[in-house]
Amino acid sequence: MKNILLNNADKIEMPIVGLGTWGAEPAEIKNAILTAMDCGYRHIGMYKLVTPCLTLILDTAFSYNNEEAIGNALKEWFTSGKGRRADVFVTSKLPCVGNRAEDVERFLKLSLENLQLEYLDLYLIHAPFAFKCDSNFTPQLEGDGSFVLDMNDNVLTWKAMEEQVKKGLCRSIGLSNFNAKQLQNIYKASEIKPAVLQIELHAYLQQRELVKLCQQLNIAVTAYSPLGSPGANIYFNTKYNYSLSNFPDILRNFEVNEIAHKHNKTPGQILLKHLIQQDVVVIPKSINPNRIKQNINIFDFKLSAEELKILNSLDKGENGRIFYCLFFKGVEKHPEYPFICKLK
Ligand SMILES: NC(=O)c1ccc[n+]([C@@H]2O[C@H](COP(=O)([O-])OP(=O)(O)OC[C@H]3O[C@@H](n4cnc5c(N)ncnc54)[C@H](OP(=O)(O)O)[C@@H]3O)[C@@H](O)[C@H]2O)c1
C-alpha cells in the first residue's frame, strides 16, 4: 500500500486507497469494514455520517446512519488485537447543515462519539454551501420543498476547523466540493493549510486544472466516485426523486475494458489505477467482499504511457459530472454553489 504525505506539521500519511461508505447500510457496513481491514485497507472515508436527520428528511423511509456501525466495527477490530487506532485513517465531514463556525466543534464531537474515537485523522468541510436547520439538525425547507439557504462564511468555518486541530480532535483538515476560487480563498486566509481536497474525479471528469492547482499548493487530492458511482442514479431517483440525464457508465467504456483485458484486470481496477498513478487518493465504495479485495489489488501492474494517454482522452469535462448536488432543491441559487450548474 502506498501512502500520500499530507502537508501538516505532523507529517501525517494518508493511504492512497480507502473505503468509501456512502449508501452502505449499517447491517452491511460491519462486514465491509472487517473485510477491508483484513485485506489491507487503512483509510475509511465517510460520507454524511453525522447527518442522520438530513438523510431522514430526504427520505424518511430509510436512514443510512452508519456512523455507529462503523464505530462498532472499528472497536471489534481493535479489541480483536488485529490493529490499533493508529493503524487506521478515519475521515469524516462537516455536513452542510453544520457549515458555520459555531457548529463545527459540536458536529465533530458528535461524529467522534458515534465512532467511539478520540480523534479523526481528517475532517473535511463537506461542501462550500450551507443550509439552515432546526435544533435536531433537520434542514429547513421552503414551501416548495427547496432548502432554506444559509449565507455562510467559509473562512470563518475554516478558522473553527483550525481550532479543532489545535484541540487535538482531528489531526488534519480539508475541503470537499470546493472549486478553485473557493479553495484559494481558504488557502490565503488559513493558518493551517487545507491538507486535502476531496472532489468527484474519474475518467469522465478529470478536473486537470483543479488537480494541478492542488499539486502546486501541496494539497492532496482525493477522488470520490472514482468508478463513476454506478449505483448513484437509482439512489438519486428512489431517495430524492431526482435523476441525471445521460448518467455515465464508465465501467462499460470500451477503451477501459480493452485496457483491463490486456492486464487481466477488471475495468474498476483500471479506473482506480489511472488515478493512483497520478498520486490521487481513491475511496471506492463497496460492500461486496470480492470487489473490496479487487479495489485494493491494484499495486501489481502499471499502466503504460500510451494507456494513460487513452484514459486521459476520455475526459468529458463538466459534462462528465455526476454530483451536481441538485437533489438539494434550490442549492444552485446559493452564492457558494461551486459547480457550473446543469439543471436536469
Ligand atoms: N465528498 C462528497 O461529496 C462525496 C460524494 C460522493 C461520494 N463520496 C465518497 O466517495 C465514496 C465513493 O464514491 P461513490 O460511492 O459515489 O462511487 P464509487 O466508489 O465510484 O462506486 C461505488 C459503486 O460501485 C460498485 N463497485 C465497487 N467496486 C466495484 C468494482 N470493482 N467493479 C464494479 N462495481 C464496483 C459499488 O457496489 P457494491 O457496494 O455492491 O460493490 C457501488 O455501487 C463514497 O462512498 C463516499 O465515501 C463523497
Automatic annotation (TrEMBL):
Question: What superkingdom does the record give?
Answer: Eukaryota
Q: Where is the active site?
A: 64 (proton donor)
Which residues are involved in binding substrate?
A: 126
GO: which molecular function terms? oxidoreductase activity
Enumerate the spans annotated as NADP-dependent oxidoreductase domain.
18-315
UniProt keywords (A-Z) are: NADP, Oxidoreductase
> Which residues carry the site feature described as Lowers pKa of active site Tyr?
93
InterPro entries linked: AKR, Aldo/ket_reductase_CS, NAD(P)_OxRdtase_dom_sf, NADP_OxRdtase_dom
Family label: Belongs to the aldo/keto reductase family.
UniProt-listed PANTHER family: ALDO/KETO REDUCTASE (PTHR11732)
What is the name listed in the Swiss-Prot or TrEMBL entry for this protein? NADP-dependent oxidoreductase domain-containing protein
Annotated source species = Aquatica leii
